[in-house]
Amino acid sequence: MQASLHSPLDGTDDAALLQPTRFIESTAPEVVRFARETVGDARDDVQRGVMLYYAVRDEFRYDPYRITLDETCFRATTVLREGAAFCIPKAILLAAAARAVGIPAALGFADVKNHLTTQKLLDAIGTDLFIYHGYTLLKLDGRWVKATPAFNLSLCERFGVKPLEFDGRSDALLHPFDAQNRKHMEYVNDRGVYADFPFQEIASSFRRFYARYFEQDLHDGRAFEDESPLTS
User: Fold this and answer.
1) The pTM is what?
2) Average pLDDT, the chain
3) What are the b/e assignments for 150-182, b being 16+ CB within 10 Å?
4) pLDDT value, residue 3
5) Within 13 Å and on the Cβ side, how many CA atoms surround 203?
6) Alpha carbon distance 62, 136 (integer Å)
7) CATH classification of 14-217, choosing from 3.10.620.30, 3.90.1200.10, 3.40.440.10, 3.40.50.300?
8) Under 8 Å between Cβ of 112 and 130
9) Dist CA 104 CA 85 (whole Å)
């Protein structure tokens, strides 16, 4: 996957990628507070982008059982309140926090094969293909870089997966192999880059592709990371 932006974002200027939206709530007081407290007095955008990435990655637990058709769950303020989300809302929170401190940000999506998911999740959705996996694009030091804040550090440790590091200068895309050199993530289809979250497009696709998932109640009180065979 290349780092360049492409349709439907072509021609969008940086000013537009600093604006708040219904989902990327970069002017919401709680988002502004989170962003400013995270970056402190750091004045370099690269440093600020990195600090925001790690805050979103590790302070908000990854939970694929929160995949939903409820649009309120995709708002940055909801992620802050709930403290857990799947990849798309976490990417939205990172974009909102970045815009809150003056860093242009966008959202990217791709279909990925996850070779190391749990049996419960595989049974729930019936496939190892995850459509519209979400990540964030940040404009740092004049360059667009991809940042994927999905998997928190404690989850990676429990699943034996390499935590995804971000230096603000190179793309941080999910690893193809885990710490034991087993297949982990495989990018199979680029869905493009957006200035805002395309809720209707993605909800419609989720409704069709994950029909089996939405027929079940998967919230049994157990955290996703506790399903790891390394901790069972």
Assistant:
1) 0.90
2) 87
3) bbbeebbebbebebbebebeeebbbbeebeeee
4) 36
5) 11
6) 15
7) 3.10.620.30
8) yes
9) 23
Helix (H) or strand (E) holding 156: helix 153-159
Query: What gap in Å lies between CA 98 and CA 169, rounded to an integer?
Result: 15
Crossing angle (nearest 10°) for helices 45-59 and 29-39: 110
Q: Longest C-alpha distance within the chain, in Å?
A: 50
What's the length of the chain?
A: 232
Task: Report residue 119 as tokens.
Answer: 């049996």
- Residues 75-121 pLDDT 10s: 999 999 999 999 999 999 999 999 999 999 999 999 998 756 788 88
User: Can you say whether residue 114 is alpha, beta or left, with left for phi > 0 and alpha for psi between -120 and 50 degrees?
Assistant: beta
- Give the position of tokens 């993530």: 185
